[in-house]
Structures are given as structure tokens and as C-alpha cells.
Design brief:
Distance between the termini: 33 Å
Helix content: over 70%
Number of helices: 5
Order of helices and strands: HHHHH
Oligomer: single chain
Largest sheet: none
Number of strands: 0
Shape: globular
Radius of gyration: 16 Å
Length: about 120
């Protein structure tokens, strides 16, 4: 039960951070899908950093790991919103934007996870 509450708290914090990023992007006059793009990439980098740190420091409790990864990162990243935004671009017939958005999110996200892992001292 303690882990579940920690994950819930982390998810709440991650969701609030995600909302603040969205507000910031709209404040800059950009479409909200770019907020989703930024959150997904930052979330990928963060979870890579955490994975690398946990690999280097095996003494971190499972509860802390779940709080940060499942909770905070899970609440922060927005892959479901990403999918919805991609579908909207497709439905609007904006095929070049759709391909750039989807491929860029996935490919650069994978690179960001690997970079975060290596930056945190992971050995992969």
C-alpha cells in the first residue's frame, strides 16, 4: 500500500509538472503538441538518467525507484496525448508534420534515453 501511495504522489507531481510545461509552451505561442513533444523527450532523458543512476547505485530502495519512474516519470510523460496529437495531424491531412512529429518523438526519444543512461554512468 505504501508503494501505491508513493506512486500516486509521484504521478500527481509529474502530472502537475507536465501541465506547467504545457502552459509555458502555450505562453510562447506554440501549438500544444510541441509541449507534448518536449515533455516526451525530457521524460525519456529523465527516465534514462534514473535508470543509469539506479544501475550505478543498487542501494536505492525499490519504493524510491517506483516513485521516480512509475510515479513522477509516468505522470509527466504523455504518450497517450502524443498519440492523440499524431492522430489529429493525420486526420487534418498534415502528413509531413505527422511523420516528422511521430518519427522525431520516437527516434529522438530513444536517443535521449540512451544518452541519459550513459550520462548517469550506466554501462550499455
Amino acid at each position: 500500500m505504501k508503494d501505491l501511495l508513493l506512486i500516486g504522489l509521484g504521478s500527481c507531481l509529474g502530472g502537475m509538472a507536465r501541465h506547467l510545461v504545457g502552459l509555458g509552451v502555450r505562453h510562447l505561442g506554440l501549438a500544444s503538441l510541441w509541449g507534448t513533444f518536449a515533455v516526451n523527450l525530457v521524460g525519456c532523458l529523465l527516465i534514462g538518467l534514473l535508470a543509469g543512476f539506479f544501475a550505478r547505485c543498487p542501494g536505492v530502495s525499490q519504493a524510491a525507484q517506483r516513485f521516480l519512474t512509475v510515479g513522477v516519470c509516468g505522470g509527466f510523460t504523455t504518450f497517450s496525448t502524443f498519440s492523440r496529437d499524431g492522430m489529429t495531424l493525420w486526420q487534418e491531412g498534415r502528413l509531413a508534420a505527422f511523420v516528422l512529429y511521430v518519427a522525431g518523438s520516437v527516434l529522438v526519444g530513444l536517443v535521449a534515453v540512451a544518452a541519459g543512461y550513459r550520462l548517469a554512468g550506466g554501462h550499455a
